[in-house]
Amino acid sequence: MSPKSNEMMDNHLLQSESLTRPGPVAAESIRVESKIYDARRLAELHPGGPLFIKAFAGRDASQAFLSYHRRQFPHSSTKAKAAYERDDETVKYSKEDNQDFMELCDRVEKVLPRLSSFAPWYYYLKVAFLLSFVVTLEGYMHYNRVYSWKLSAIMGLFYAWIGLNIQHDANHGAVSRYHWVNRALGASQNWIGGSAISWVHQHVVQHHMHTNDVNLDPDMAGSAFIRLNPLKPLMKYHIVQHIYFFFLLAIYGFSVVIQSFLNVVYGSHHTAMSPLLVPHRVFESFMSIVFVCRWVLLPLYQVPEIDTFLSTVPMYMVCGYYLAFFFSISHNFSGVFMLEDTTREASSADTGTFLYKQVVSSSNVGGRVLCFFNGGLNYQIEHHLFPRISHCHYPTIAHTVHQYCQEKGIPYVHFNTVWENIRSCTKHLLDLGSHQTPENVSFFEQKVKSQ
Q1: Residue 160 and residue 167: Cα distance in Å, rounded?
Q2: How far is CA 412 from the centre of its chain?
Q3: What is the value of pTM for the model shown?
Q4: Could you tell me if 274 and 206 are in contact, meaning their C-beta atoms sit under 8 angstroms apart?
Q5: How far is CA 278 from CA 93, 273, 284, in A?
Q6: CA–CA separation, 311 vs 156, rounded Å?
């Protein structure tokens, strides 16, 4: 990126700060478009269950409702009126800001009607196999006191597949129209060592609404050793981050177990959790303790040797690596767009619509086979646009989404193979590790400013 481009980015940062921002939302209220609702009351009335409403309490949920329901919010419905508090006069909202997304929704509707977008019957066969396998294997290991690194590695692989195929869809509300089914299967996140509530706060409330936002997406934080965000300081050792990055992913599994527990205890990850999630956090903390008992205390009690603990390490490494690897390459590739402001008020035809920002900050890789094993997370573009559609249907709607993006001139990145995706990710990491201002990263706001 040229110095002139860098100057344009700085100018836009100043410009974004001068946008007319809506007023704050009370901790137990929720804003949808230009109206404020009682979050507790709306949670009670929400057909999709109370969790998402509680998770978004204190925030603007306009874009979340659109992407999850593929329609405008029914302000005039009886349930909405029952939770209505007041109009928010600080908000300037126009349905035209999401006209492109609604057009795409109409096209997708013809291919996949909304009521047919949940998991098909054969998905439950995969769920039954994955869950029964890990329960049986864990029971075998504990009952027979057999803690080998081979069995541990196999367990880690199946934990990763549970994370991608079961908990991910379930905690997005994409498995079933019945929220209790989603909550039950979503608890598989706790079983494999994470936290469903922490994941919803980090992934649904923040990452999905602010994908690749250099300020608001927690996945852009990176670490002291990994520079994913161009606003972070450039250190000398970052020059080789494209090499050691793929080795550091091996510790991700340990990080998830520890960080998930701390998140629910302190009620924060990047930003504070909704106060309405406090009862959930108590249960989640308990489940984290149960996981430690299952995979640390019980094995050591049965076979009190250091090798016992070391033999379980591959479980964390395999599971964590598999998950982190595919999530990382989907949002970190050469030419990816990084965004400075993805808030609802900054998403319009002039500053980049919600649809545009979701597409240009993600990429796809492979096809139906990888979709089966990875729970559709290789179709990141379709998933970010329609997170409440079961991953089983992503190959069905992908052509429609791709065709629409081509017509509208929206960059749509699809890698034919995982290897192509890896090469592009490596190039991206090298770029961020070599230049204070990366050369192969696109900033949509710069593009708008220069036109």
Answers
A1: 10
A2: 19
A3: 0.91
A4: no
A5: 32, 9, 10
A6: 12
- Total residue length of the chain: 451
Compute and round to an integer the Cα radius of gyration of the chain: 22
DSSP state of 72: -
CA–chain centroid gap for 182, Å, is 16
Q: Which H/E stretch holds residue 254?
A: helix 252-266
Among 249, 246, 253, CA closest to 423: 246
Q: How would DSSP label each residue in 175-232? A: S-SSHHHHHHHHTHHHHTTS-HHHHIIIIIIIITTSTTBTTT-GGG---SS----TTS
Whole-angstrom distance, CA of residue 299 vs CA of residue 145: 7
The closest alpha carbon to 347, from 43, 52, 66, 23, belongs to: 66
- 37 bridge partner residues: 30, 84
Helices 306-331 and 149-162 pack at an angle, to 10 degrees, of 30
Token pair for 50: 């109370």
Cβ atoms of 114 and 173 closer than 8 Å: no
Model confidence pLDDT, tens digit, residues 284-317 = 999 999 999 999 999 999 999 999 999 999 999 9
- Per residue in 351-387, pLDDT (tens digit) is 688 999 999 999 999 999 999 999 999 999 999 999 9
Number of other residues whose CB lies within 10 A of the CB of residue 55: 24
